[in-house]
Structure formats: C-alpha cells, structure tokens
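Design job #97: recover the sequence.
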C-alpha cells in the first residue's frame, strides 16, 4: 500500500504532519506538498514557469507550486510507484458547501480522481491556532481504511470535514450533501500610506444555511461529515430547459 499525502497549507503545516504520520499504519507514505501556504488556489496548474522540488527529508518533497502541481509531480515524477490512494489535508479550516471550489485541498483530490486514483480531502473545522489535528488524523485513517477496502465509485472522491473537538466529544460520521453559503463575502477597501487604494477580499464569518443533511449541519453538531463529490458538474435537469431555447 502506497499513499501519497498533499495539502494546500504547505509542507510545514501541522495538519499534514499529523496526517502523514497517522497514515503510516496503512502503508508507505510519501509527502509531496507546496513549499508554502497555497490555500484558495483552487485547481490551478502552473504552466508558465518551471517547478522546483526540494527533498526536505526522506519521503518529504516540497514543490514551489500548487496542490494540483504537487499531485502531478508526485505521480508522474517523484513517486517510484503509482500510489494506491491520495489523501489531501488536514486543511486548517473547513471545506464546506460552495467553498470547495476555492479549495486547493479539494482540488488535489480532484486531480488524483482525474488520474483514476482513489482520493480523500480532509479538513479540520477551525481557524484556531491550536487544532485537534491528531484526532482528525485518526478519522483520516478510518476513512482511508474503508476506501482501501471498498474502493470508490467512478469519478468520485470523499470530502471529509472533522469538527474541532476532543475524541470523546466527536459524533459518528454522517454521509452528507454539499451545503450552501447563506451570504456572499465582501471586499474591504482601504488607503495605503502613499494615499493609494488597496483591497482585501473578505470572506466574513463562515455562515451556511443550517439545512439537515448538509455538511455544515453535521459539523455544527460535532459529527464528522463525509460528502462524496463527483467531477461532472453538468446540471442534467437544466439540459432539458436549455434544449428548448432557440439558439
Ligand atoms: Mn488551506
């Protein structure tokens, strides 16, 4: 069993270290991750500059690129074998609902899925500096065990979110659907010391509709949320509607 681990928080993030060491009970683990934080780069691929790789220690490769670059580098260049599983995380912060499209953590799992390799994205639902990463890493091991034993449906990966609480408070996993944000973020404009305007994209507080069956609803009640996501974004229902238009 050969497992490749990546993330978007960078190779020095506490989440990836907890994940890589926990997954060692299942097989050989190779880490290929960005050399710095690349959160919210989505599924970006570096095409206009070369990529450099630094082997920090045995089985730990830092790439000066995106999570998607890392999956490509790992599978097509650095790993001696095609991995049996790719696990991305543990992201510092939840990846729920519509936010998954921004996520580099999720994009790495998408890239592996495109290559036909089973993949899991895993995130810890907190922005606190101290997170329960060891507990989330144990969740990753349990989910990985099931993926290895059962395989995944075609075109599908698992987006796992873990509430930030000690083991004893953690509720059993729920299979969920993607939730919806209840408001859109804002842009904050300020003036720099030279009198020029600058802007920050502000996401505000993560706020989701608390609908039953969603990833957010589960996390909000201390359940581990497991959402099977697939890559086909086609809205099949609306194909019928659009087909009736006079193009
Ligand atoms: Mn991140």
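Job complete. Output follows.
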């Amino acid at each position: 069993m050969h497992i490749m681990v990546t993330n978007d928080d960078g190779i020095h993030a506490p989440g990836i270290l907890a994940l890589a060491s926990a997954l060692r009970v299942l097989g050989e683990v190779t880490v290929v991750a960005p050399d710095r934080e690349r959160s919210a780069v989505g599924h970006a691929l570096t095409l206009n500059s070369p990529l450099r790789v630094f082997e920090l220690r045995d089985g730990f490769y830092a790439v000066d690129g995106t999570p998607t670059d890392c999956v490509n580098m790992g599978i097509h260049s650095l790993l001696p074998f095609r991995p049996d599983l790719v696990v991305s995380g543990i992201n510092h912060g939840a990846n729920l609902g519509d936010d998954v499209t921004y996520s580099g953590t999720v994009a790495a799992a998408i890239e592996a899925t495109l290559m036909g390799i089973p993949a899991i994205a895993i995130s810890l639902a907190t922005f606190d500096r101290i997170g329960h990463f060891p507990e989330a890493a144990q969740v990753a091991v349990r989910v990985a065990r099931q993926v290895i034993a059962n395989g995944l449906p075609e075109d599908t990966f698992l987006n796992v979110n873990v509430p930030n609480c000690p083991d004893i408070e953690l509720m059993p996993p729920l299979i969920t659907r993607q939730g919806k944000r209840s408001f859109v973020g804002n842009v904050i404009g300020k003036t720099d010391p030279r009198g020029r305007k600058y802007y920050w994209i502000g996401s505000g507080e993560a706020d989701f509709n608390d609908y039953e069956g969603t990833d957010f609803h589960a996390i909000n009640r201390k359940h581990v949320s497991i959402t099977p996501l697939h890559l086909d974004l086609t809205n099949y229902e609306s194909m019928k509607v659009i087909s009736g238009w006079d193009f």
